[in-house]
Design brief:
Number of helices: 24
Number of strands: 20
Distance between the termini: 56 Å
Structural class: alpha/beta
Length: 594
């Protein structure tokens, strides 16, 4: 007989105890969140279950990104818990990122007791009594959202929520949990003596592939002499890297990757063409113009991945293997990405073919010393130091802005770790929580690469890494600015504002003072940066490195390329020397990237 949480032996348990046990049974190892009165019972239950670790973040946005990083690096369901009111609303941008990037999360959101709904309760979001309805807030950014009205309804709603999060297109599921319902008792269902069911956090069974579409796609690829593959995040989500490499070999294809999927193909392989899109390499467009067929795998090819390629794509024969329809005209084969890769490969002639010669992912020219001086470290040198120190099984999380554009363009992905850029919403500060979640989930050294703007938004999560001894190396590129915004103001708005340029801040000194036990380095050059990173690798816990960069350094970002010295003139005079007609055509659609 099941004993209740209060030991009464009634055969019932508190809802939260049942919920915590179900999470443990589904393979969830961590619940990330921030506490509060209307979610404290769940944290109590997580503590009682023992096999799930409750991680308290400094902010609910970062708690979501911790669950996001956990999910992206493990393939399992990430779980976040937050209280009502402001805590619940702070989840919104993180859940929106997970929704846009197809990351499976379960958000457990506390609510005031049901007896107080519509009666002026503190943080009432029931939709009653002129309060707003939390369900209406979360529904547009979730695959499933429901309010748990009574204890017994959880027995139906929890499996539905977990299945919705893990079913393509994956994303967040939200359960709204009133405090009195959390404390209520339920009678767990009897154990099924039959065969064990699939874990709720496992992906749902794949829909069979459409045979007609499979035949059409295979026929197009068989006829092609030259193929460019552009692979996306869906390859990582499906754990289909080996299948991608096998198909590319059969086709004799070049392989490019989208900015958020650098790790899905070996960046040092002779087939690797580079990164597609606005942070990418010119070689991708050159290969696309030479190809008979462009094969999209695990990507719908959103704007940041196709910027600069649209004219060549319009002239190409495009094929897509993805669970969703692409954003460009293509012959599409839907369904599970790994199944589609295997099925198409099975219809091709056996054995690998060499790919045609190509120039490879050559970086855009680095800025010269006239543009980057003093004690600042150019991004190219700094990222070369990161590359030299980066363990092959490390995870890398890259934040928005100039830092993100430079890292996507210049830093090869580790061979056996994730390289994650959150391009769904592009929210600054995403990496601090996500890197911690990944490190706690996998135990691997995880690098967070972020600018000072991102650090000032959510860098307080360094405290969480210190408290939990998480193996995270934080690298903050400090140009004392929202530099991508400042460059946009100069290049595209005449340079009349300096709102996004800040006074100098010694971030390393501040962090060292706040966290005496943390290994902190203010790196004055690339050599000291590399030494600090290697020292961090050798340690078991977190490390922090900050280095100064120049806010005027132009990152390898396509809309800025006409303004570089290698483009049409001196970047110092770009605001007046480059008429609007010289603006890159893609810029009119890329409004903001950091």
């Amino acid at each position: 007989m099941t004993v209740s949480a209060d030991g009464s032996g009634t055969g019932t348990v508190r809802l939260v105890d049942h919920l915590a046990g179900e999470l443990a049974g589904a393979g969830v190892t961590h619940v990330f969140g921030v506490g509060g009165a209307n979610i404290e019972d769940l944290y109590d239950a997580v503590h009682r279950v023992g096999t799930v670790r409750g991680v308290v973040a400094k902010h609910e946005f970062s708690a979501v990104t911790m669950a996001d990083g956990y999910a992206r690096t493990t393939g399992r369901l990430g779980v976040v818990a937050a209280t009502s009111g402001g805590g619940a609303m702070n989840l919104v941008p993180g859940l929106a990122e997970a929704y846009a990037s197809r990351v499976p999360l379960l958000a457990l959101v506390g609510q005031p007791p049901t007896v107080q709904e519509g009666r002026g309760a503190f943080q009432d979001t029931s939709g009653k009594g002129d309060s707003f309805d939390a369900g209406e807030v979360f529904t547009p950014i979730s695959r499933f959202c429901a309010r748990v009205e009574d204890a017994d309804s959880l027995l139906e709603l929890l499996p539905r929520a977990m299945a919705a999060a893990m079913t393509e297109p994956r994303g967040p599921a939200v359960l709204l949990l009133p405090k009195d319902v959390q404390q209520a008792h339920l009678r767990p269902p009897e154990q099924d003596p039959g065969p064990p069911a699939a874990e709720p956090s496992a992906p749902a069974p794949a829909t069979p592939l459409d045979r007609t579409a499979l035949t059409e796609v295979a026929d197009i690829l068989r006829r092609a002499d030259t193929v460019l593959v552009i692979a996306g995040e869906g390859v990582a989500a499906a754990d289909a890297r080996a299948e991608l490499a096998e198909l590319a070999g059969r086709l004799g294809a070049w392989v490019a990757v989208t900015p958020d999927a650098k790790d899905v193909f070996d960046n040092r392989h002779p087939r690797f063409a580079g990164v597609a899109g606005v942070m990418g390499h010119a070689n991708v467009e050159q290969c696309l113009r030479r190809a008979d067929v462009c094969l999209l795998v695990g990507t719908r090819l959103p704007l940041l991945a196709r910027g600069g390629l649209e004219q060549a794509l319009a002239a190409a024969d495009v094929v897509c293997l993805d669970s969703e329809q692409p954003f460009v005209a293509a012959t599409a084969l839907g369904g599970d990405v790994r199944d589609a890769l295997r099925a198409v490969t099975g219809r091709l002639a056996p054995g690998p073919r060499a790919c045609p010669q190509h120039s490879g992912p050559l970086p855009v020219p680095a800025p010269d010393s006239a543009n980057v001086g003093g004690r600042t470290v150019p991004f190219a040198r700094a990222l070369a130091a990161v590359e030299a120190a980066l363990p092959e099984d490390a995870h890398v999380f890259v934040d928005a802005g100039n830092t993100g554009a430079s890292a996507v363009h210049l830093l090869p992905a580790p061979r056996h770790g994730r390289f994650v850029v959150a391009l769904g919403m592009g929210g600054m500060g995403y990496t601090f929580g996500a890197g911690i979640g990944a490190a706690l989930a996998t135990g691997r050294r995880t690098y967070v690469l972020a600018g000072d703007g991102a650090f000032f938004m959510h860098g307080a999560e360094v405290h969480t890494a210190v408290e939990l001894s998480a193996p995270v190396t934080f690298v903050v590129f400090n140009n004392n600015a929202h530099a991508m915004c400042a460059l946009r103001e100069e290049f595209l708005q005449g340079g009349v504002r300096t709102d996004d340029l800040f006074g100098r801040t010694d971030i390393a000194a501040g962090v060292a003072a706040a966290f005496p036990s943390l290994d902190v380095t203010g790196a004055e050059d690339a050599t000291r940066l590399r030494e600090a990173l290697l020292r961090g690798n050798a340690g078991g816990g977190p490390a922090f490195v900050a280095l100064d960069c120049d806010p005027r350094e132009i990152p390898p970002f396509l809309p800025f390329q006409p303004f570089t010295a290698a483009g049409t003139g001196d970047p110092g005079r770009a605001g007046t020397d480059h008429p609007e007609s010289k603006e890159n055509a893609d810029e009119r659609r890329v409004v903001r990237a950091g």
